[in-house]
Every structure is written in structure tokens, then in C-alpha cells.
Specification:
The chain is of the alpha+beta class. The chain is built from 1 helix and 4 strands, in the order αββββ. β3 and β4 form a beta hairpin.
Length: about 80
């Protein structure tokens, strides 16, 4: 039973990792003016599910869902 759970957990981690895009395939950070909280975020393209890392929520592409956990998995905030 424990082995089956380990295999399922490994599959979930691999599936999450395959959704995360490499930096070269992600859109460049969006230009913005004014103050923005400097905290690393992950943003997910609603059309493709691609997940990309950005230096703050203001630089993520417009219309993408913002996550504060790695790999677009935790603490989503729709911006």
C-alpha cells in the first residue's frame, strides 16, 4: 500500500513539474510603473496551463492567475 502511495505522489510531482515552463519559453516580465511588492510569484496562463516565475505580481502577464507557491500550486490570487 505504501509503495502505491509513493508512486502516486511521484506521478503528481512529475505532472506538476511538466506544467512549469522553462524561463526561455515564458513571456518576458510585463512593464509597470509605480510601487509593487517585491515577492517572487508564479503565474499560470489560463489558455495553456503554462506556469512561469516572475519577480513580482505586477510583472506577470495580464490575465494570468498569480500563485505565491512554486509551480502554480499554492495561494492563488486572480489578478
Amino acid at each position: 500500500m505504501l509503495r502505491k502511495l509513493s508512486l502516486v505522489a511521484a506521478f503528481v510531482l512529475v505532472a506538476a513539474a511538466t506544467r512549469t515552463a522553462t524561463a526561455s519559453s515564458c513571456p518576458p516580465p510585463r512593464q509597470y510603473s509605480g510601487f509593487c511588492t517585491e515577492v517572487i510569484v508564479w503565474a499560470q496562463d489560463p489558455a495553456t496551463g503554462m506556469c512561469c516565475q516572475y519577480p513580482n505580481p505586477c510583472s506577470a502577464p495580464a490575465g494570468w492567475t498569480i500563485y505565491y507557491g512554486p509551480g502554480c500550486t499554492d495561494g492563488s490570487v486572480g489578478l
